[in-house]
Design goal:
Layout (H helix, E strand, L loop, with lengths): L8 E4 L6 E5 L8 E8 L4 E7 L15 E7 L5 E6 L7 E6 L5 E5 L4 E5 L7 E5 L7 E6 L5 E5 L4 E8 L2 E7 L9 E7 L2 E6 L3 E8 L2 E9 L3 E7 L2 E6 L20 E5 L2
Antiparallel strand pairs: 1-2, 3-4, 4-5, 5-6, 7-8, 8-9, 9-10, 11-12, 12-13, 13-14, 15-16, 16-17, 17-18, 19-20, 20-21
């Protein structure tokens, strides 16, 4: 579990009973931590680290730019550290393909970047003006194509993937407007998706349309994942970052909540 405000990464046991520090805030030059993705096959945890002062989060260090770092799950040792290209970049979330290539959404540019195994620099997998409204969640679908959403635009896109190359970028129709869509993860024959407005939904794609089936409601969810028979949702409550604390009111609390897999 990461923290835009404080940095670092917390490790939570499968039953949610034990919480420990996996990555201390500021360690290995990290700053504000965003998306996380575990790669069990290679035994690493991918971490997005950013200078998020533009979003109102100072973070624990003065490290400039946007970075993606990989840590050994067993030891916590850093294995990889690669900076995103460009003067304006923010690494948000990740997806992995079957060859171990890492795909990263750049929220500050209409780009999906790719890092091949062993590479020391990112390559631009796709760049399209249609993706300019805050790229966020990303996941591969059962059809082998990439799917992404835009946080500010409330959009859902399919990026065609043919022979490891990007093809057509298509915006999908949704039965209702999406409100600050965020975390997106593959699930059964579709996806799980959270929206900053509170919704956790199951998403299924057919042609140029996406079905949105409500599962639950949370407080400002930002991330979602599945472990065993549980769906885990992080309540990041990003809307509170821009609001000054009110006198006499307790500081907000943030939670990692779970629901049964359906």
């Amino acid at each position: 579990m990461s923290s835009i405000a404080d940095g670092g990464v917390l490790k939570v046991s499968a039953d949610g009973a034990v919480v420990s520090q996996f990555l201390k805030p500021g360690d290995h030059g990290t700053r504000s931590t965003f998306g996380l993705l575990a790669d069990p096959k290679r035994g690493v945890l991918w971490v997005a680290s950013n200078d998020a002062t533009a979003l109102g989060a100072k973070g624990p260090t003065g490290t400039e730019g946007a970075w993606v770092k990989a840590f050994d799950v067993a030891t916590g040792a850093m294995k990889t550290s690669v900076r995103l290209p460009g003067a304006k970049a923010l690494a948000n979330d990740f997806a992995l393909d079957g060859d171990g290539c890492l795909y990263v959404t750049n929220t500050f540019a209409p780009q999906i970047l790719r890092l091949k195994p062993g590479a020391t620099e990112f390559e631009v997998f796709v760049e399209d003006p249609a993706l300019s409204k805050g790229l966020d969640g990303i996941a591969f679908g059962p059809d082998g194509n990439l799917y992404v959403n835009t946080f500010m635009g409330g959009e859902l896109f399919r990026i065609e993937v043919k022979q490891s190359a990007a093809g057509q970028v298509t915006q999908l129709e949704t039965p209702r407007p999406l409100k600050f869509p965020d975390g997106l993860r593959a699930f059964k024959d579709g996806f799980l998706m959270v929206e900053g407005s509170g919704a956790l939904s199951r998403v299924t794609v057919s042609g140029y349309s996406a079905g949105i089936e409500p599962i639950g409601q949370f407080a400002g969810p930002t991330g979602v994942t599945v472990s065993g028979d549980r769906i885990w949702v992080s309540e990041g409550q990003l809307g509170l970052m821009s609001k000054p604390p009110e006198a006499g009111r307790d500081a907000p609390s943030f939670h990692l909540r779970s629901a049964n897999v359906q």
